[in-house]
Amino acid sequence: MKIKRLALPLLSLLAVLAVLPASASALEFEIVNESGVPSEDVYVTVDGAGFDVPGMTADQPKKLSEIPGQKLTVNTLVSGRVYVSYGAPVQEGVGFDSPTRFDWAELTVTPSSSDVANLTAVDQVGIGMRLETLGSGGHLETVGSANSDTIFNALQQIPGGPQATVRDGDGNVLRVLSPLHTTAYPGLGPYVRSLAGQTITLRTAFFGEPFTTSRYSGTFAADGSIALSGSTNPPGAAPATLEFGGAQLIEDVYTGANTPNDLSGAIRRDVLAGFSVGLWGGRYGNDALSFCTNPNTTAQGSWCPNGFNQPAFGDARVALSPFPTCEQYAAVINRYSDAYGNPYSDASKKVTVGLDQPGTGGEVETLRLTILPDSGSAQPVAAGNPNCGAAAPTPAPAPAAGGAAAATKTRVNVRFFRRARLDGAKARVARLTCSARCGRVRLTAKRGKGVLGRGRAVVEGRRRVLVLRLTKRGRKAMARTRRAKVKLIVRVRPPGAKAVSRRHKMVLAKRAPHRHRRG
Questions:
Q1: Domain extent listing, the chain
Q2: Spatial contact of 509 and 515, defined as CB atoms under 8 Å apart
Q3: pTM of the complete model
């Protein structure tokens, strides 16, 4: 599963650096520009924790033409990103409404034998790229993608793809957003609810201290909720019963949310991953042990040591259903790229290259990033079957002569709170009520041109309290002040109806510190 970026604490980073082998050699990072865009119009930005990249300053862009030999030396870079942009520089945290076309690769260099690099489309796809590792023995590993026009065109063919496409003033595609940043894609509620009455079994391992295995089973209710019951080995690593509400489960399939770094979170992650890539209710059955090609069984239990690595998405389905049975955006990325298309992409194919350097016993001396042209015949190393969308609907009978089809309009009411008080990085901002199922909801809080907060939800019912989460910019802003005035935009798209937008000016405020009364 894709790990969220996080800043390595200073003491932890110093501890890592303290145990590095003295003979560790730096990683050479080479950028090859095949894009057709002149190198003086291509910008490179490097950012990450433990930053040690001579010739570059953290989060400060530089023209590719100004990088000698288009090569960098990477001594250390933890949870790093290398941004590539056309025509203008970008920095970490650039908004996805930016008029600049950009994309990035991710890498961690400590150095350690477990260091890796990858491409990512979890947030958006903007520029086709390829990553390769090289050593004294020549070429080692590759992950790559098709040319961007190929991917863009494929995404226009799925529901929500055209609406998720960001274009410039001339109509050229800048990027296609993922379900994390748009409500354009269809919800997966029908797929989750289609498993009503079916029993699933999970055999999940947690690679912590101590290593723990588990076996849980449960049967889905009509609303998609499920109560999983089981045991762990050693005992007590997770509750005997884990309950997942249907509405929250459906919402979290796209986001991978509510999966803490413990055994309970790993079990929930496996439930979400099975829906995301179309495994549940598919050709492999509903025992998660059958979702991998190399199950491991010992006296401690059974588990998939390398995740769910059976062919997924369309390859996992017996036939098309009346509704999508996977994340179709991620399915297209899986077909045309070796990048992460969602947080679970490493469950169905190889999406990383190892960076084990000679100083840590490995062979990797160079990591090469190639910026591909927009058109061409490039392809990923491994391509999957993306056909897990909805089957073509049966044509509806024509209305009787003189008659007219009655359209039902969903009424949407948003009652904004006068003041939104932050609880950490989250705040309840409004109460949503609909006359029928509300559907997909997106929130954006702006101050000037900056976005301080975002939120998204799939509301299967008719009401929901809406929650806003601070962006990186928002967290920085609120660190300097106790309150900020923002313009909140709520966009609601009920099923089968046009989207409705509501706007409101409100105040984001920190909670007052708790004061103890003297006794």
A1: 10-178+329-371, 189-316, 412-510
A2: no
A3: 0.74
Q: Homologous superfamily of 10-178+329-371 in CATH? A: Thaumatin (2.60.110.10)
* Residue listed under structure tokens 């301080």: 452
Closest by CA position to 372, among listed 47, 93, 63, 132: 132
Peptide bond preceding 234: is omega within 30 degrees of 0, i.e. cis? yes
Single out the residue of 366, 369, 373, 367 nearest to residue 38, CA to CA.
373
Question: How many other C-beta atoms can be found within 10 angstroms of the C-beta atom of residue 325?
Answer: 32
Strand (E) or helix (H) holding 27? strand 27-33
- Distance between CA atoms of 225 and 394, rounded to whole angstroms? 29
C-alpha–C-alpha distance, residues 190 and 127, integer Å: 33
Task: Report the distance separating Cα 349 and Cα 272, nearest Å.
Answer: 17
| Contact in structure between 73 and 28 (CB atoms under 8 Å) | yes
Average pLDDT, the chain: 89
Coil, strand or helix: which one is 82? strand
Query: Do 176 and 155 contact (CB within 8 A), yes or no?
Result: yes
Q: What is the pLDDT of residues 313-360, one digit of tens each?
A: 999 999 999 999 999 999 999 999 999 998 877 767 889 999 999 988
Q: Do 347 and 330 contact (CB within 8 A), yes or no?
A: no
Q: What is the pLDDT of residues 454-513, one digit of tens each?
A: 988 877 777 888 888 899 888 888 888 888 899 999 988 888 777 888 888 888 888 755
Report the C-alpha gap between 384 and 363 in whole angstroms.
Answer: 29
What DSSP assignment string belongs to 405-444?
PPPPPPPEEEEE-SEEEEETTEEEEEEEEESS--EEEEEE
Residue-wise burial string across 464-482, b where 16 or more C-beta atoms lie within 10 A, e elsewhere? bebbbbbbeebeebbeeee
Task: Determine whether domain 412-510 maps to CATH 2.60.120.280.
Answer: no
